[in-house]
Amino acid sequence: MTQVKITELVLRDGHQSLIATRMRTEDMLPICAKLDNAGFWSLEAWGGATFDACVRFLKEDPWERLRKLRRALPNSRIQMLLRGQNLLGYRHYPDDLVRAFVQKSADNGVDVFRVFDAMNDIRNLRVSIEAVKAAGKHAEGTLSYTTSPVHDIRYFVTMARQLETMGCDTLAIKDMAGLLTPYTTAELVKSLKAAVSLPIHLHSHATSGLASMAHMKGVEAGAVMIDTCLSAFSEGASHPTTESLVAAFAGTEYDTGIDLIKLQEITAYFKEVRKKYWQFEMKGQQVDTRILVSQVPGGMISNLVNQLKEQGALERMDEVLAEIPRVRADLGYPPLVTPTSQIVGTQAVLNVLTGGRYKSVTNEVKSYLLGRYGAAPGQVNEEVKQLAVGNQEVIACRPADLLSDELDKLRGEAEGLAKSDEDVLTYAMFPDLGRTFLQERAGGALTPEPLLPPEAKLATACPAVYAPSEFNVTLHGETYHIRIKGTGHAGDGERPFYVHVDGVAEEVLLEALDEVEVTPGTGAARKTSSKKADLPGGVKQRPRPTHAGCVTTAMPGAIVDVKVKLGDKIKAGDGVLVIEAMKMENEVQAPVTGTVVAVHVAKGDAVTPDQVLVEIQPEA
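and the corresponding structure tokens:
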């Protein structure tokens, strides 16, 4: 009997795909006993974006989450997703950090490590897999599935043979965008079974509506393990439904042996839990077939929607989706999975919004073209490469070979804050974010982002609180077309709005003289305060420079580095600022040659398109 084994994803990829990885540990622990006894082969519960979300949003120690889950799931294999040499961050880490991270993950409770590389560069997987085996744990080598002129069956068979040689225990086909079709799945699985002896594990997102069919055909072709998610967090950008596939295989040679009644009890619990996180629900179609053309994973689409909304440019989504395949081709067809999905997606947005392809190039695209993420699967566009990095030398070795050991240095940097090696590794993943987390923990000030009450959902849905982002204003017989592009942070009752007036960028300072409370569900409103009614009625104006030396950004984000100071002499094209958007860094360059006469931002500031960040006095 060829029993199908199931990896359940509700504790990681299910909520990562549908509620932005926001489920808290306190909502996982009460149901763990039932999950532990359900009969799953493994429970994916750590890795991926969970580490980032714990530290950034939930203010939880990700290592403590893992330890709590380990205690609550004594009979289960806990599985994690590891990005090879990228670990759980967005850059390559030196080998000493990779080995330390894997060992500590194993020590704290991980049994199965699914190891992948966004480039499918086998060199970036070697040290991670070696570390997993050295820790005595299960290493699952991963094929990041995609389609392109270079990604055919032969390509994946060759990679599978290399992973088997490395000592992997199982082989995962990771279809992060839902591109696998049923018959292609069958052909791929049959070819892999003929080439390697490793058990084959299928993972596919349901975004395109094909994943359940792909799982069925894959199992019939010889796959013995599949990833599914309980119906409380399944389908859409998530995964095929666990209960449905358990029922589909029941009574056949592939019977999973899992009790549907037990699953219903667990699902009922998570359906109630999900209601708490309504504010993070991913909006959009349950089935989105656009990804079959754009190859954009579900999580990447939600990021793009949010970015374009912030800029008042959501209507340009179709342009961005059309640009993504072109950027991907220019970069040699990388699979679209973290971090390459962000690299390609962010560059596509810039190409659309800055009025010219590669007019602005992110630092990550430059690093990619220089080989710092690994070897591109196909040939890169030489014209784009020349435009982005000129004649800089492209590295040919494994990128991590150029990195020196960091663990001892990081221990020194985190001294006084880090109480354990796990804390040092948290700092290593995200230095600024990690330092803030450790400082807040030391001061007893860890406060998770708030969960809005159910009544707030009614208020946000109330037509009475709707406000347009584009409108006409008629004043003294003159009509002006206003389009809101973004807003800054409120301070002392004032908030800047960045708008276009008849196409001209302006900054408007709004001063609140009173506030209105809206009764949820009714639209009834009443004045509740008059904070600044005693202030003079004169209009405050904040001059907005518009000369050629004004430095702005095409995307909202956060300042991660200010590279100039007052009085600096700079040339057109020199780097002025570095802005993080969509988890990618973009260097903003000087538009003119001249002298820096004003710097309006500092590291950590949130910035908005068309906001003046730096002023340069052009040379005469």
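(Above: one complete record from the training split.) Residues 78 and 111 are 5 Å apart (CA to CA).
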